[in-house]
Design goal:
The structure holds two protein chains of two kinds. Chain A has strands at about 5, 10-15, 20-25, 30-40, 45-50, 55-60, 60-65, 70-75, 85-95, 100-105, 105-110. By secondary structure, chain A is mostly beta strands. In chain A, the strands form two sheets. In chain A, strands 2, 4, 5, 9, 10 and 11 form a six-stranded mixed beta sheet that branches. In chain A, a hairpin with an 8-residue loop joins strand 9 and strand 10. Chain B has strands at about 5, 10-15, 20-25, 30-35, 45-50, 55, 65, 75-80, 85-95, 105, 110. In chain B, a hairpin with a 5-residue loop joins strand 4 (about 30-35) and strand 5. In chain B, about 35% of the residues are buried. Classes of the chains: A mainly beta, B mainly beta. At the A-B interface, strand 4, strand 5 and strand 10 of A face strand 4, strand 5, strand 9 and strand 10 of B.
Chain lengths: ~110, ~110
């Protein structure tokens, strides 16, 4: 049972344009969401997070939007740069049980010149 | 430099042999985790520990064992009972408290031949 889903395995975007990565979840108890970026043969690095009391969180070129009624979140990268090319993982947890981060399957983003 | 160190980066073992993956952190984090990544799948939780001398099974604990004798160390043993041990293994740690992100090591690629 996949509680966190990233239905697009890959995304290709031109440099300078917006990248939108999507994530859906099924467990309504999740109230804290994170995005991680991962290069091949390396560990993931934390990008940005959002709690369920917000619907938007922004950090530089990265913005995460949360739609609780739809159980959907998205990561926007504007403008996209070639260095953004990586696999992006969405993760979710329950605040009172942050020992368990549930990850999605990842979306491979390629930013081309 | 504070961080999480996994060693070795690449590991080869013969089928039927137990193997132990090392994970050390100097971030003074209370919680530590082991995840497994397979192609096309997200990060799946194997074991986690919130305090020394205590740990819990994750979603795919069968065929694995861990120990947490020291706060900074959380070794993972892949036993011969693990049916498909070839994978990329990631160790992570996080501070105590809620709504905190996990920090990952660089990973160990285990290949069983």
């Amino acid at each position: 049972d996949q509680q966190v889903k990233q239905n697009s395995p890959s995304l290709s975007v031109q440099e300078g344009r917006i990248s939108i990565l999507n994530c859906d979840y099924t467990n309504s108890m999740f109230d804290y969401f994170l995005w991680y970026k991962k290069y091949p043969a390396e560990g993931p690095t934390f990008l940005i997070s959002i709690s369920s009391i917000k619907d938007k969180n922004e950090d530089g070129r990265f913005t995460v939007f949360l739609n609780k009624s739809a159980k959907h979140l998205s990561l926007h990268i504007v403008p996209s740069q070639p260095g953004d090319s990586a696999v992006y993982f969405c993760a979710a947890s329950r605040s009172y049980n942050t020992d368990k981060l549930i990850f999605g399957t990842g979306t491979r983003l390629q930013v081309f010149p | 430099d504070g961080g999480i160190t996994q060693s070795p980066k690449y590991l080869f073992r013969k089928e039927g042999q137990n193997v132990t993956l090392s994970c050390e952190q100097n971030l003074n984090h209370d919680a530590m985790y082991w995840y497994r990544q397979d192609p096309g799948q997200g990060l799946r939780l194997i074991y986690y520990s919130q305090i020394v001398n205590d740990f819990q099974k994750g979603d795919i604990a069968e065929g694995y064992s861990v120990s947490r004798e020291k706060k900074e160390s959380f070794p993972l043993t892949v036993t011969s009972a693990q049916k498909n041990p070839t994978a990329f293994y990631l160790c992570a740690s996080s501070p105590a408290g809620w709504r905190t992100e996990a920090f990952f090591g660089q990973g160990t690629r285990l290949t069983v031949v």
